[in-house]
Specification:
The chain is built from 14 helices and eleven strands. The chain is an alpha/beta fold. The relative contact order is 0.08.
Length: 362
């Protein structure tokens, strides 16, 4: 049999299978390293553009070159040009020759009036910046130096801007979830929303069910956001606000048709299992729990967004960390739930829906 006409090429591109899981004779690319190094610049270029109102001004004036845009924004022209080019290569702006314009991503997510605006969320989403600079210490010590939920810390200082920033996205997910859950078909459902933040889930359910009522819980300072949001959406008269720690507040047993745990379990660590058990006890037979969060796959490789979100929790909270599908499913199963399923109402927003066994009371 004739040998390969390109023996050197064949040799260099043959898998070696010498490592675990395997490696290659050809040196790997440094691209993943540079991607991590550039992560800081990518994030802060987006934050700077929001702070300078680049996207909102482009929405007002339309396609523009850098000179009139710099005049409009009252900034340095050369540095603005560098920032705009960085936004283009990240996919946040269009550029044709020297003219910059919004693309669909910017119009939807990066403009203040966008249909799914993330303008308020982006600056606060990673948590306190100083905690990332001390991540190595957090890994060594098992605790962040300045946790957002430590003793003596007012939860409202961190969580008020966060729940205000996340409201639009989560309310949109909660509204779309009706297509999968069908909560609008319930008759006068009673909702319990624990750690509600701005109450996006309760508001969506109350908007979908004109005869529904809700008990909305969070820390007193954070609950002011829920009070304002429910008033703005015209549902506050059907809401009872119940301030306090959701592990300790009084909860009526077997009284609710829906219990919501929206983006709270990843801050709880091992205590999340007890919170799920409280939710089970609060539900009527046939009632459903909605547990919304970011869930990594069991191997923690296939959903980078959830894995990084878990590290974000570890960097800034005392007990927080990643949630895996296996871990959450075990909490739900041990609490006694059945008919456990996961839904994705909108991209990157997931929720487990689980039912307390028994007859449906509606």
């Amino acid at each position: 049999m004739a040998d390969s006409p390109y023996p050197e090429l064949k040799k260099r591109h043959t898998m070696a299978h010498t490592g675990r899981p395997w490696t290659d004779h050809k040196p790997p690319s440094a691209a993943p390293v540079w991607a991590a190094v550039e992560g800081l610049a990518r994030y802060h270029s987006l934050v700077a553009a929001l702070e300078l109102d680049v996207f909102d001004v482009l929405a007002d004036v339309g396609p523009a070159e850098v000179t009139p845009l710099a005049t409009k924004l009252d900034v340095d022209e050369a540095n603005l040009g560098a920032l705009l080019d960085a936004l283009v290569v990240q996919g946040f702006l269009e550029q044709i020759r020297d003219v910059y314009d919004l693309n669909d991503t910017a119009r939807r997510y990066l403009c203040s009036e966008g249909a799914a605006t993330m303008v308020d969320l982006i600056p606060v989403a990673p948590g306190p910046a100083e905690n990332w600079t001390r991540l190595a210490d957090t890994v060594r010590n098992g605790r962040p130096a300045t946790p957002v939920d430590g003793d003596g810390v007012d939860p409202a200082e961190f969580y008020v801007p966060l729940v205000e920033g996340t409201f639009t996205t989560i309310h949109r997910a909660a509204t779309r979830a009706d297509l999968r859950i069908g909560y609008s078909r319930l008759r006068a459902p009673k909702v319990l929303d624990l750690g509600a933040g701005g109450a996006p889930w309760s508001i969506a359910i109350l908007e979908g069910c004109p005869d529904a009522t809700a008990v909305v819980n969070d820390w007193p300072g954070v609950l002011t956001v829920a009070e304002a949001k429910t008033a703005a959406h015209g549902v506050s008269e059907r809401v009872q606000f119940r301030p306090g720690d959701y592990h300790e507040i009084e909860i009526e047993p077997g009284a609710y048709d829906i219990v919501v745990l929206g983006h709270v379990c990843r801050t709880e660590g091992p205590r999340a299992a007890a919170l799920v058990a409280r939710a089970f006890g609060a539900l009527k037979p046939g009632g459903r729990l909605i547990l919304a969060d970011y869930f990594a796959d069991n191997g923690r490789k296939l959903n980078p967004h959830a894995v990084i979100m878990g590290l974000t929790m570890a960097a800034s909270t005392v007990e927080g960390g990643p949630l895996t599908a296996r871990g959450v499913h075990s909490w739900l199963h041990e609490a006694g739930f059945e008919a456990i399923r996961m839904i994705e109402p909108i991209g990157f927003q997931f929720a487990y829906v689980a039912t307390r066994p028994g007859a449906v009371d509606s």
